[in-house]
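Async update (no meeting this week)

Hi team, since we skipped the sync, here's where things stand on the single-chain job. The sequence we agreed to prioritize is pasted below, unchanged from the tracker. I ran it this morning and attached the output directly underneath so nobody has to dig for it. Comments welcome in thread, and please keep replies under the output.
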Amino acid sequence: MAKGRYTSDLDVGDEFAPMTYEVTPFCIREYCHSVELHQEAFHGGADGAQAWAVPMVHMDKLRFYHRDCPEGSGPNARIHYEFDATWTDQIKVGDRVTTEGRVARRLTRRNREYVEIEVEIRSAADGKVKLRYKDTTVLSYRTKGGAS
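Output:
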């Protein structure tokens, strides 16, 4: 595991220890404000229910990075490249969820180094998967001269 090191040191098979927390209205509202999701569903619309915005799973990934790689990004800034999320059940305010993650793969393509992180969010009550997420990040880009 890359504990105490950079996110750029993460390697295939590294696992992030699970995090369990309760989904709060504040968490959803503040996240949605920050990314300009102004739809009522995210702010407790007419029925008072708030929807979990799919990109909120990025916050769990960043919590993993902050906790397990406290020295930061490394000598090169990382760039979020793409993500894919698959819903299997709703996540609602008041739900207790457990998030787990692991490094699934590292690869180099066109002089760019990538890392793929897989994250699952499960119900803390019954272990049922609610969301699967794959995140691909560019760790470094090497120019033709070899500089990053």
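Quick observations from my side:
The domain at 7-141 is CATH 3.10.129.10 (Thiol Ester Dehydrase; Chain A).
The CA atoms of residues 89 and 130 lie 5 Å apart.
Reply here if anything looks off.
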